[in-house]
Amino acid sequence: MADHGTNHGTHHRTHGQINRLSGGQIDRNKPLSFTFDGKTFQGYHGDTLASALLANGVRLMGRSFKYHRPRGPLTAGSEEPNAIVALRSGAYQEPNTRATTAELFDGLEATSQNRWPSLAFDAMAINDRFSNFLTAGFYYKTFMWPAAFWEKIYEPIIRKAAGLGALTGSADPDVYDKGFRHCDLLVVGAGPSGLMAARTAAEAGFEVIIADEDFRFGGRLNSEHEFIGDQAGADWAASQVAHLGTFSNVRVMSRTTVIGTFDHGIYGAVERVTDHLRTSAEGQPRQILWRIYAKHTVLCAGATERPIAFNNNDRPGVMLAGAMRSYANRWGVSAARDAVIFTSNDDGHRTAADLHRQGVAIAAVVDTRADAPSAHEYAVIAGTTVTDTRGRLGLNAVQVTDATGHSRWLKAGSLGVSGGWNPNVHLTSHQGARPVWNDALNAFVPSPSLPPHMSVAGAAAGMLSTHGALHSGVDAACKALEIDPRTLPALPKADDRPVTQSAFWCVQGSERAWLDQQNDVTVKDVKLSHQEGFRAVEHLKRYTTLGMATDQGKTSNMGGLAVMAELTGQPIADVGTTMFRPPYTPTAIGVLAGRSRGKDFHPVRLTPSHYWAKERGAVFVEVGNWLRAQWFPIEGETHWRQSVDREVLATRSSVGVCDCTTLGKIDVQGTDAAVFLNKVYCNGFAKLAVGRTRYGLMLREDGIAMDDGTAARLAEDHFVVTTTTANAGKVYQHMEFVRQCLCPDLDVQLISTTESWAQYAIAGPNARALLQKVVDAEFDISNDAFPFMACGAITVCGGLRARLFRISFSGELAFELAVPARYGDAMMRRLMDEGEEFNVTPYGTEALGVMRIEKGHAAGNELNGTTTAQNLGLGRMVSKAKDSIGSKLSERVGLNTEDGLRLVGLRPLNPKDKITAGGHVMSAEGPVNAAHDQGYVTSAAYSPTLGNMIGLAFIKSGSERIGDRMRLVSPLTKTSVEVEVVSPHFVDPEGERQRA
Amino acid sequence: MHDLTPITAFGLAEPTVFVTQSCQLAERPRIALASVAARLGVDEACRAVITDLLRADAPDPAAWLASDIYSAFWMGPDQWMFSADFPDVEDIVARLKTSFGETASITEQTDGWVSFDLTGEVEAVLELVCSVDMRTRSAGYASRVSIHHTGCFLLIEASDRVRVYAPRASAGSVFHGISQAMTSAAAR
Amino acid sequence: MIINHPLLGPRDSAEFTYLGDASLLNRPDPDTATPKDWHDYAYLRDNPAGLHRELWFHEGGDRSWLVVTRNTVTHEITKVELARDVARGLASDVAGMGTKRSGG
Q: Which InterPro entries match (chain B) (predicted)?
């Protein structure tokens, strides 16, 4: 498995791949072609973009954020700070992706970022010369004044000069899914510990999900030259993955990053479905955001190597030593044909040995320790440090300085740096637990107070040997799932060398030594932060931006803390570390949105007459999720007002029909139904006769109006309650609260029936005449038999069951007819046909709104969460004869003052003037300011009935000011209009029409 | 007999079907639905009627079961949804009222919901639309679930067959959400 | 979060809507309560760092109101009850409160 053809001459297409070595887990039978900055290169299936570029001798892959310094990959994984590129082109282009994790495919287009005009010559590299001015806190200090310059001048300049890639500006053409998965055990990471944890749980029959961000499982085993039992580590990993694949209770999720830990075992994971493919199938999601519900979790996220800071440690060719090993062993690649290794621990020597085995010349291993182990094949310089480097666009020499201060230069194209390994504790701290310092490892390890049902195994737990990883994986699964470990087979033999790590963070005398390569934070910046008093770890972070780049400081935080610890004379354990937050790695916004984009942002609710209205050419409006007909334009109408005025006048003069299905309908049944309604409505319902409907007002417990509607009594123990469209859900919830929590011993049952019935308002002087043509003859709907506010079950059109309510929102003679929803379309068409002789007119929500304002009925604008029954002019509705929700607190003095707001009508003295909703009302004379505010306009409309604009307003002592002249002002629109306070009932104030 | 012609929630005369290589989503018209909520203090009597109608104990929370005429699922404490495949769906409330008498409140629900049958490799589709765990839930499970931000009922009939009741007004959105997931699942 | 529903077992909190302090169950007796009682009921809530009894509505489930005892610091949920059961317990504790009805 591991050796797919080691440089067989025949199909040799290493053409140009000057740094391709032998071996590796790449398929040399599958050459791939790709471009970087327009130039074509070859790589192999199994390569990442970074490994393929290195193979081709390309070390320079990007420019740094602030100083525009040339940069190449530091790592071989998702922690990469430097090799940040844009992938693909056109609308599909995605900026800021890591070349070290981008899986190579044939035809991949990659472009470097943050450089102009080219990567090799970047004009903004001048910033590097002015680094003395661009130190920590630069933004805070420099652009303080004048404030007005910030948005227009400084910010655009900074944004252009500093930063990462640019967005395309086009809509993302990919689709993304969200999904849900459940398991007994979630294993995060598929290295040796993760594979063993998953296998242990799988064989015991548990539902297992094992996820790894990599496209190849095995973790470090793929990067190391080592054996498990008698198999090469990578081969062993592959055999374990194959074994897991035989279990139906295991889901193996590769290319899946667990990005966050949430409460109670919920994890977020992003699966990259097509990022490694040139094109995706129709409807295939690019990525899926999984919500994983795990009863238990084992975190096997491994460890990240940490660099050592020294001057000019950021040149292309300077890498983490473990990453060099990955490139050599996994991908058969070296950054150059010669290397220096700089290490503070034994791990660096592994890199030297592996590179040497692969034919890379080791110029020297520079070990900070005086007692460094020696080697036969190459020189080891003990007790020495790397103090500087050379090479404009890539490393060509390394300066080595010994304890006596004697320096010399070593020629090398690559430099591997190893400062030890930090456990990847991130997911353990997403819920607030802070990692703790471990003196033996000189690293932070997971807090003992882990999220519930999470455990940590392998390198993430500080077990840095393969043997330790295998065992801790098994142990974690056994403990979590209560598996008896004695029943398990013995584990294969694996590397069990003791691991020690020294605390060596920064070479003495370093200044322009990079700690955070992605945000360009140097040792000097941390010193400045200390000098200026920003010493607490959270201050350090914000002042210098250390660790605030897209890599979240995975390779930099530790070094920064260590330098600060040294400056303050504190141990690192006392300095502490900043928190890690989701997501673990940068996540596309698209996958967080999923399908909820554009017209799929929210579901749409269609009324029963929708298809008919669409045929009629209705203009629709969104009301919550509902699509309602707003008006129905007819030929010749070019402005919405023409349609709306016509609909109002036609309804008031003959008959109009409006779909009011969207009003919430709640079925209330039970022997205590009337008692219950008495509790939720402030007015009385106990005495309402069967066959009658009553307007009802619901208050909140604090006495403020919540919603209004009607309750129709269909039987002694059966009511149908309507709510406003907007509050349907909220009122149902409130009624369930009263039923379950306040009146648990009432016999009452509730259920929503909003969508079961198509309900149409039929309004106007000819409403009855029209209805009589469809209501079956045995039902008498004359004024005597079916008076205002009557209700009842009827049949229409020869036997279809229906409900009829004689209620009026428009103020006209009006009925609401309800039929089973599937007949709603046919019913509407029938009403139109039968109404032809009356010139029946369908009307939309605009005409509905105009007519209710003309009639002075309160709606959402008036029931705005601040108004009382008193304000609405409905104070007398609040019954004092019974207790209802809100009745007691509505009696509060403050809500019942003489000069309280009252609902009134407003009419402009000059009929041409506009009434503006939201405008405020002032006395006719005197100052216009908040202190003299007399009230405000809630609703305004042009009344075709009256021929001028009208408004509803809340005005102090309004009911005593009818006939007063006042001023309506709107400073925002520079409006000042003379108005007269009138009754809110502009049309038929006596209510004769609705009773006709 | 009245002379009005019903339409489906999609504005059509015939039920809507969507098919991929691995799944089918089919609208099932003319299923009568009514909710049954036990009246206070007589829930034992109400359950006795249910037992009579279903020839089994009333469904437990998160469960559904069927007899020859009715099937029923648990909706909430002392509340069930009954369904039946009647020639005339208008009958259901009258028939249930006769059976339950004063022991329960019956509410017509036929037109409130649109029924869909999802058949085939349903797990790969459902995991993209709602949080039900098809691996541990088995036939007989019933629950309200959120599909495309819409509260629906999901009944598991077999590992390769589920019934979804979607609110009629949002049926198009729910159908759209499930069919997108079917396409997505088939492409993976 | 996961709320362990007394009837339905563990359910994602996304299925619920949150109301707040469960002291809303203790509605004052309208016959005897003083304005201060009403004021306190409507407006005063404890805001503990620790165990908190709160009301959740299973909107995306069985439409039960639940009383959830949750640690506001750790989000640990230690108890979940049907609010109706809690309310009935309260009603039987406090003589003369609420509307009484003998079942059946």
A: TrmE/GcvT-like (IPR027266)
- For residue A206, the 8-state DSSP code is -
**C2-93 maps to which CATH number?**
3.30.2270.10
CA separation, residue A666 to residues A718, A747, A823, B169, C78 (Å)? 11, 16, 20, 16, 34
For residue A626, the chain B residues in CB contact (below 8 A) are 169
Quick check: is A583 in a domain? no
Q: Is the ipTM of this complex over 0.90?
A: yes
Q: What pLDDT shows up at residue A163?
A: 67
One domain, residues A670 and A646:
no
* A740 touching C (Cβ < 8 Å): yes
CA distance A883 to A880: 7
- Can you say how many angstroms the Cα of residue C17 is from the centroid of all Cα atoms in its chain? 13
Set of chain B residues whose Cβ sits within 8 Å of the Cβ of A820: 6, 90, 108, 110-111
Residues 1-60 of chain B with CB under 8 A from chain A are 1-9, 11, 35, 37, 39-41
Same domain, A760 and A846: yes
Tell me the fold of B19-29+112-187. Gyrase A; domain 2 (3.30.1360)
On average, the pLDDT of chain C sits at 89
Kindly identify which residue of chain B lies nearest to residue C7, measuring between CA atoms.
Answer: B61
The predicted pLDDT at position A576 comes to 85
Whether residues A7 and A55 fall in one domain? yes
* pLDDT band of C95, cuts 50, 70, 90: very low
| A397, A479: one domain | no
Interface test with A, best of B90, B91, B111 (most A CBs within 10 A): B111
Name the residue facing C60 among B40, B79, B144 (closest C-beta). B144
CA of C5: which chain B residue's CA is closest?
B61
> For B122-135, how does the pLDDT look when each residue is reduced to its tens digit (9 = 90+)?
999 999 999 999 99
Size of interface B-C (CB pairs under 8 A): 38
Residue B156 CB contacts under 8 Å (≥ 6 apart), including other chains: B132, B134, B137, B138, B139, B140, B141, B142, B162
Q: Give phi and psi for C3, each to the nearest 5.
A: -110, 125
CATH, domain B32-110, list 2.60.40.420, 3.30.70.1520, 3.30.2130.30, 1.10.3720.10: 3.30.70.1520
| CB pairs A-B closer than 8 Å | 158
Phi/psi region, residue A84 (left: phi>0; alpha: psi -120 to 50; beta: rest), is: beta
Interface test with B, best of A599, A605, A759, A803 (most B CBs within 10 A): A605
Delimit the domains of chain B by residue range.
Answer: 19-29+112-187, 32-110
Tell me which residue in C42, C82, C100 faces A889 most closely, judged by beta carbons: C42
Helices H, strands E: what count in chain A?
A: 22, 50
Contacts of A773 in chain B (CB under 8 A): none
Q: Give the dihedral of Cα atoms B156, B157, B162, B165; nearest 10 deg.
A: -80
Residue A368's CATH number: 3.50.50.60
Chain B residue with minimum CA distance to A282: B187
Decide if A293 and B130 are in contact by the 8 Å CB cutoff: no
Nearest to A356 by CA among A368, A340, A344: A340
For A171-193, write each residue's pLDDT tens digit: 999 999 999 999 999 999 999 99
- Do A669 and A649 fall within a single domain? no
Residues A264 and A382 in one domain: no
In a domain, A949, yes or no: yes
A-facing residues of B in 119-178 (CB < 8 A) are 127-128, 130-133, 135-136, 148-150, 167-170, 172-174, 176-177
Question: By residue range, what is the domain housing residue A314?
Answer: 307-419
Give the CATH number for residue A551. Answer: 1.10.10.1100
Contacts of C59 in chain B (CB under 8 A): 151
A10 pLDDT band, cuts 50/70/90, is very low
Our count of domains for chain A comes to 7
